[in-house]
Amino acid sequence: MTTTAHLRQQSTESHWWILLLPSLLLSVSATLGLSVSAIAFRLEPSSTLSYLPPVVGLVLALAYFTAPAAVAVGIHFDRRYIASVSEWEPRSEYTLLGLAMWFGIGIPFGLLYLYRRHKYVGVP
Predict the structure, then answer these.
(1) 64 partner at 20 to 30 Å CA-CA among 28, 29, 39, 101?
(2) Are the C-beta atoms of 120 and 87 separated by less than 8 Å?
Protein backbone atom coordinates (compact mmCIF):
# COMPACT_ATOMS: atom_id res chain seq x y z
CA MET A 1 0.00 0.00 0.00
CA THR A 2 2.80 2.42 0.78
CA THR A 3 4.36 1.69 -2.59
CA THR A 4 1.16 2.72 -4.37
CA ALA A 5 0.86 5.90 -2.30
CA HIS A 6 4.52 6.71 -2.92
CA LEU A 7 4.15 6.20 -6.69
CA ARG A 8 1.00 8.35 -6.75
CA GLN A 9 2.78 11.15 -4.84
CA GLN A 10 5.86 10.90 -7.05
CA SER A 11 3.84 11.06 -10.29
CA THR A 12 1.93 14.11 -9.00
CA GLU A 13 5.09 16.00 -8.10
CA SER A 14 6.88 15.16 -11.31
CA HIS A 15 4.39 17.03 -13.51
CA TRP A 16 4.74 20.49 -11.95
CA TRP A 17 6.98 21.59 -14.83
CA ILE A 18 3.91 21.60 -17.08
CA LEU A 19 2.86 24.93 -15.54
CA LEU A 20 5.89 26.48 -17.27
CA LEU A 21 4.63 25.59 -20.76
CA PRO A 22 1.61 27.95 -21.00
CA SER A 23 3.77 30.92 -20.07
CA LEU A 24 6.43 29.94 -22.59
CA LEU A 25 3.84 29.41 -25.32
CA LEU A 26 2.05 32.66 -24.49
CA SER A 27 5.29 34.65 -24.57
CA VAL A 28 6.46 33.19 -27.86
CA SER A 29 3.05 33.42 -29.54
CA ALA A 30 2.47 37.00 -28.33
CA THR A 31 5.86 38.09 -29.61
CA LEU A 32 5.39 36.41 -32.98
CA GLY A 33 1.72 37.41 -33.33
CA LEU A 34 2.30 41.05 -32.53
CA SER A 35 5.34 41.21 -34.80
CA VAL A 36 3.59 39.57 -37.75
CA SER A 37 0.42 41.64 -37.36
CA ALA A 38 2.44 44.83 -36.99
CA ILE A 39 4.31 44.06 -40.20
CA ALA A 40 1.20 42.92 -42.08
CA PHE A 41 -0.94 45.91 -41.07
CA ARG A 42 1.95 48.38 -40.77
CA LEU A 43 0.83 49.22 -37.27
CA GLU A 44 2.60 49.62 -34.00
CA PRO A 45 2.42 46.40 -31.94
CA SER A 46 0.37 48.04 -29.18
CA SER A 47 -2.41 49.05 -31.60
CA THR A 48 -2.78 45.53 -33.02
CA LEU A 49 -4.43 44.39 -29.79
CA SER A 50 -7.41 46.62 -30.45
CA TYR A 51 -8.29 44.50 -33.50
CA LEU A 52 -8.86 41.38 -31.40
CA PRO A 53 -12.39 40.36 -30.36
CA PRO A 54 -13.08 41.35 -26.73
CA VAL A 55 -13.34 37.74 -25.51
CA VAL A 56 -9.97 36.84 -27.01
CA GLY A 57 -8.43 39.97 -25.49
CA LEU A 58 -9.87 39.07 -22.08
CA VAL A 59 -8.54 35.51 -22.22
CA LEU A 60 -5.09 36.75 -23.28
CA ALA A 61 -5.07 39.38 -20.53
CA LEU A 62 -6.04 36.83 -17.87
CA ALA A 63 -3.39 34.42 -19.10
CA TYR A 64 -0.81 37.20 -19.24
CA PHE A 65 -1.43 38.31 -15.66
CA THR A 66 -1.86 34.87 -14.06
CA ALA A 67 1.03 33.13 -15.83
CA PRO A 68 3.78 34.42 -13.49
CA ALA A 69 1.98 33.02 -10.44
CA ALA A 70 1.38 29.67 -12.13
CA VAL A 71 5.02 29.46 -13.19
CA ALA A 72 6.28 30.38 -9.71
CA VAL A 73 4.12 27.70 -8.05
CA GLY A 74 5.04 25.08 -10.65
CA ILE A 75 8.76 25.78 -10.50
CA HIS A 76 8.75 25.82 -6.69
CA PHE A 77 7.27 22.34 -6.40
CA ASP A 78 9.24 21.03 -9.37
CA ARG A 79 12.51 22.23 -7.78
CA ARG A 80 11.67 20.25 -4.66
CA TYR A 81 10.91 17.15 -6.72
CA ILE A 82 14.11 17.42 -8.78
CA ALA A 83 16.27 17.90 -5.68
CA SER A 84 14.76 14.77 -4.15
CA VAL A 85 15.39 12.50 -7.16
CA SER A 86 18.63 13.82 -8.66
CA GLU A 87 21.90 15.50 -7.77
CA TRP A 88 20.84 18.80 -9.34
CA GLU A 89 19.37 21.41 -7.01
CA PRO A 90 17.78 24.15 -9.13
CA ARG A 91 18.35 27.64 -7.78
CA SER A 92 15.47 29.47 -6.15
CA GLU A 93 15.78 32.25 -8.74
CA TYR A 94 14.04 29.99 -11.26
CA THR A 95 10.77 30.85 -9.51
CA LEU A 96 11.09 34.33 -11.04
CA LEU A 97 10.74 32.90 -14.56
CA GLY A 98 7.11 33.99 -14.79
CA LEU A 99 8.01 37.62 -14.21
CA ALA A 100 10.90 37.32 -16.64
CA MET A 101 8.43 36.13 -19.30
CA TRP A 102 6.82 39.58 -19.22
CA PHE A 103 10.09 41.11 -20.38
CA GLY A 104 11.00 38.45 -22.93
CA ILE A 105 14.10 37.23 -21.10
CA GLY A 106 12.23 34.35 -19.50
CA ILE A 107 11.96 32.42 -22.75
CA PRO A 108 15.64 31.38 -22.94
CA PHE A 109 15.80 30.81 -19.18
CA GLY A 110 12.64 28.69 -19.28
CA LEU A 111 14.05 26.59 -22.10
CA LEU A 112 17.34 26.28 -20.18
CA TYR A 113 15.44 25.07 -17.10
CA LEU A 114 13.57 22.46 -19.16
CA TYR A 115 16.82 21.34 -20.82
CA ARG A 116 18.59 20.91 -17.48
CA ARG A 117 15.55 19.16 -16.06
CA HIS A 118 15.62 16.74 -18.96
CA LYS A 119 19.35 16.17 -18.46
CA TYR A 120 18.98 15.21 -14.78
CA VAL A 121 15.48 13.74 -14.55
CA GLY A 122 14.78 12.59 -18.10
CA VAL A 123 11.43 14.31 -18.50
CA PRO A 124 10.22 16.39 -20.53
Answers:
(1) 39
(2) yes
- List, in sequence order, every beta strand (DSSP E) within 3-124: none
Q: What is the pLDDT of residue 6?
A: 46
In terms of phi and psi (left: phi > 0; alpha: psi -120 to 50; beta: otherwise), the region of 42 is: left
Whole-number Å distance between alpha carbons of 84 and 78? 10
pLDDT at 106: 81
CA–CA gap between residue 41 and residue 116 (Å, rounded): 40
Peptide bond into 124 cis (omega under 30): yes
Residue 122 Rama label (left phi>0; alpha psi -120 to 50; beta): left
> Cβ(90)–Cβ(96) under 8 Å?
no
Task: List Cβ neighbours of 79 (8 Å cut-off, separation of 6 or more).
Answer: 89, 90, 92, 94, 95
**Which residues of the chain carry a pLDDT beneath 70?**
1-14, 34, 37-38, 41-52
* Residue burial 15-39, b: 16+ Cβ < 10 Å; e: rest: ebbebbebbbeebeebeeebeebee
